[in-house]
Amino acid sequence: MYNSTGDLKETVYYVSDEFVRVVNSSGTFDTTYVKQDGVRVAELESDGSNLFVHLKPFI
């Protein structure tokens, strides 16, 4: 990605369907996607936090 002056702002590497790396002036940030039966159910962030994804509401 580039900013308005044409300087490189960040680079995103799609290593696989489960792993993405973002490199910018703040550092390197990795995200690992966790899938179950081909559906993303969670994201593991570089800082150790987890995000759980619910695609359908619980009844």
Structure summarized in a few sentences:
Helix content is 0%, strand content 56%. It contains no helices and 5 strands. Strands 1-2-3-4-5 form a 5-stranded antiparallel beta sheet, with no helix packed on it.
Q: What do these coordinates show?
A:
The termini are far apart. This protein has one domain (10-51). It contains no helices and 5 strands. It has strands at residues 10-16, 19-24, 27-36, 39-45, 50-52. The radius of gyration is 15 Å and the shape is elongated. With 59 residues, the chain is an all-beta fold. A hairpin with a 4-residue loop joins strand 4 and strand 5.
SSE blueprint:
Blueprint: E1 10-16, E2 19-24, E3 27-36, E4 39-45, E5 50-52
Antiparallel strand pairs: 1-2, 2-3, 3-4, 4-5
Radius of gyration: 15 Å
Treating each run of at least 4 consecutive H or I residues as one helix, how many helices?
0
- Distance from N terminus to C terminus (CA atoms, Å) equals 41 Å
Strand order within the widest beta sheet:
1-2-3-4-5
Taken in chain order, the helices and strands follow as EEEEE
| Oligomeric status | single chain
Record field, number of beta strands: 5
Count of discrete structural domains: 1
Structural class: mainly beta
Helix content percent band: under 10%
Low-pLDDT ranges: none
For the report, how would you describe the main beta sheet? 5 strands, antiparallel
Mean pLDDT: 84
SS strand fraction: over 45%
User: In one word, what is the shape?
Assistant: elongated
